[in-house]
Amino acid sequence: MQTIWLSGAEWFAILRIGLGLWWLESWRHKDKKTWFTGGGIGWAAGIAEKHRWPVVRRGFDTVVKPRPRLMAYVVAYAELALGLGLIAGFLTPIALACGLVLNLIYLVLMIHDWAEQGQNLMMALISAVALLAMSWQVWSVDEAVGWFL
């Protein structure tokens, strides 16, 4: 593969690291006080209850709504873990797959909010490309210890 300046594997590593920075920013910009006291999950509950797909409403009501505080921590710290894992290249294929799933969940939940869809679609696409390109081959903990090669 011919590229300018860096190798193909290095460009894919940059894509992976950029996605990690995006996840880190998703975590950083949350108002933690509001988020952890129910603000984030309450906001999502309002969206889920009006969702056009009954399966989304039922899934949210079954999994998330009964545990708002736990789910707030799961979402926030999943974003933090994804960001740090992708930047460092630690357990990268797992982080990319989990990030792809999380973006698809966000995409399905926010199907009515077109402002959010661009971000979730782009992050899902980057996750898929970085996963299929094995973006952990350079500049990663995985590469340094010989995992997933």
From TrEMBL:
- Superkingdom, natural source: Bacteria
Query: According to its record, what are the GO cellular component terms?
Result: membrane
Give the UniProt subcellular location, in the record's own words.
Answer: Membrane
Q: Where is the signal peptide?
A: none
Please indicate if the UniProt record lists Transmembrane as a keyword. Answer: yes
Q: Which residues cross the membrane?
A: 6-24, 94-114, 121-139
Topologically, how does it sit relative to the membrane?
Multi-pass membrane protein
Does the keyword Membrane feature in the UniProt annotation? yes
Chief location of this protein? membrane
Which Pfam families does the UniProt record give? DoxX (PF07681)
Q: Which UniProt keywords apply?
A: Membrane, Transmembrane, Transmembrane helix
Q: Which InterPro entries match?
A: DoxX
Q: Could you tell me what this protein is called?
A: DoxX family protein
| Species, as recorded | Streptomyces alboflavus
The uppermost taxa in this organism's lineage are: Bacteria, Bacillati, Actinomycetota, Actinomycetes, Kitasatosporales
Gene that encodes the chain = doxD
